Fold:
Amino acid sequence: MVRFLLDTDHISVLEWQAGQEYDLLSARMAAHLPDDFAFSIVSFEEQTLGAHNYVARARTRENFIKGYELFELVRSIFCSSRVLPMDDAATDVLQNLKSMKLHVKAMDLRIAAIAISNKVTLLTRNMADFSRIPNLNTENWTI
Structure:
């Protein structure tokens, strides 16, 4: 049963596989079952947009190849993980959040809606924005 949804920033830390934030996050995750964690389809969108932008800006052969390596990394990580959808329940929550005019970015609202509708805790480093969203449980496992 999913208990935690990883925000895109926590997924990026896992992709880096280095540094203090990675060490802290991976140690905390190791104390749980793999089935406790999921990603959102919105994070997949953000990650693929990032890879797309990298390829679009590539001016050298090496950067072009690296951009497609980023696509492959995103594909492999998301294919091996549970991904929560933007379904009817999440869309209903999203519409409610939008009506509150919370001044939170669209992608963050979408991720929050998925977390709230699935009754899971969002793991994020972006506490400033996500703390504005009512009924959203958040934790930062990189500190």
User: Anything to note?
Assistant: The longest helix spans residues 61-79. The two ends are 25 Å apart (CA to CA). The chain has seven helices and five strands. The first strand starts at residue 4 and ends at 6.
